[in-house]
Amino acid sequence: MTHFRTTMLLAASFLLTLTAVTAWSDDAPAQAFTLEAPLGIDLDALQVPDDNPLSAEKIELGKLLYFDGRLSSDGTVSCATCHHPDKGFTDQLKFSKGVDGQEGGRNSPTVINTAFGYFQFWDGRAPTLEAQAGGPIENPIEMASSHDEAVKTISGIAGYAPYFEKAFGDKTVTIDRITKAIASYERTVLSGNSAWDRFVDGDKAALSESAQRGLELFEGKANCTRCHVGFNLTDGLFHNLGVGMDADKPDLGRYDVTKKEEDKGAFKTPTVRDIQRTGPYMHDGSVATLEEVIELYDRGGEKNQWLDVKMVPLGLTDGEKKDLLAFMKSLEGDWKHEAPANLPK
Ligand code: HEC
Ligand code: HEC
Asked: I need a labelling partner for 81 at 20 to 30 A (CA). Which of 40, 205, 221, 340 fits?
């Protein structure tokens, strides 16, 4: 199984090192910072833009902002409302509820390990976490604010000034700095050291016999690694499983970004780490349980014109379905993240 773990993730040009951060650009006054890698996690694959190197100070500020509802128009909705650590960095709802309880049309994906992705959102429309973070603040049904409004509000909270100063060299608040700080915090939301990681690392007792059979199925008969591949269990690419395609006006996903026919109904492959904590599943939250997910794959997805060629009926026995489920449950990481005790006043 090492071949599967070490599968290189797309282009090597994305590889960036996290340690040698000594450049003193305007936005990086802070000193070098090294993240600690949980077992099984390849930090070289973390996507960190050159103009936003990690620093402890940016991460600290970003964490406060991530949990601060004052970034929204009515002060009630923060990033954590829809991506909460207690709920596997999701909201565990079919559709998220934003300001005034408004519902969107997509399920809130987990923020866990999303820093390894080359694309953000189910349809990949944002290239980086920085670009992503500006979206919800001004999305009318999420935080329903504007970038100017958010900057004004945060500038008006005196307690934030020292945090901006430490992170960026002076206390000026800009949307660029807000999103850089939030993205830096998100890069610390890493999950590894699961029973699976420990098993691969040589602890043969870490997985039950059933979960070991499940792992074999995951890589073999059940075809899962054709898409959920590498240490983060995703190819980072887009596929049509047919989910939601029977709607009158189906969500066309990646197609709306690329306008390519073959992208119709294709969505980004999510990680399946911590999968037990992040239901309901799929871009439309239409699949309630992991048992139902396995049934969906067993029948080869939902038939439609654009179904991914990798989706084929699997013919799993009841015992094999149980084994696969046992393996999925072994993917829970040992991370700890909590809301900050206090927000700046
Ligand atoms: C009202 C709920 C809501 C709020 C508030 C919210 N999000 Fe999201 N988030 C979502 C939904 C729903 C999606 C998926 C939307 C899509 O793919 O079109 C998403 C997608 C994401 C993604 C992409 C993950 C992936 O796997 O591609 C990240 C990262 C993210 N949000 C971070 C944030 C941050 C940071 C904030 C605060 C600035 C925030 N979210 C605020 C609901 C929310
Ligand atoms: C053809 C590529 C492909 C294959 C093969 C595949 N998946 Fe997926 N998987 C995806 C994509 C893409 C999604 C999201 C689809 C959507 O939302 O419409 C997904 C979603 C999931 C989800 C829900 C994740 C979430 O956060 O909502 C689980 C669980 C899952 N897959 C497990 C499996 C298992 C188990 C197998 C093997 C039986 C498997 N997948 C095979 C591409 C694939």
From this structure: 40
Q: Is residue 199 a contact partner of residue 206, using CB atoms and an 8 Å limit?
A: yes
Residues with CB under 6 A from ligand 2: 222-224, 226-228, 239, 241, 243, 267, 269-270, 272, 275, 278, 281-283, 290, 293, 297, 308, 310-311, 324
pLDDT above 70 for 206: yes
Whole-number Å distance between alpha carbons of 254 and 239: 9
Q: Which long-range contacts (CB under 8 A, 24 or more apart) does 160-166 make?
A: 160/61, 160/64, 160/344, 163/57, 163/60, 163/61, 163/64, 163/344, 164/61, 166/30, 166/57, 166/60, 166/61
Judged against a pLDDT cut of 70, whether residue 6 lies above it is answered with no
Q: Tens digit of pLDDT for each residue in 108-147?
A: 999 999 999 999 999 999 999 999 999 999 999 999 899 9
pLDDT, tens digit, 9 for 90 and up, residues 58-89: 999 999 999 999 999 999 999 999 999 999 99
Distance between Cα 190 and ligand 2 center (Å) = 20
Whole-angstrom distance, CA of residue 180 vs CA of residue 150 = 14
Find out whether 275 and 331 touch, Cβ atoms under 8 Å: yes
Cβ–Cβ contacts within 10 Å for residue 73, how many?
21
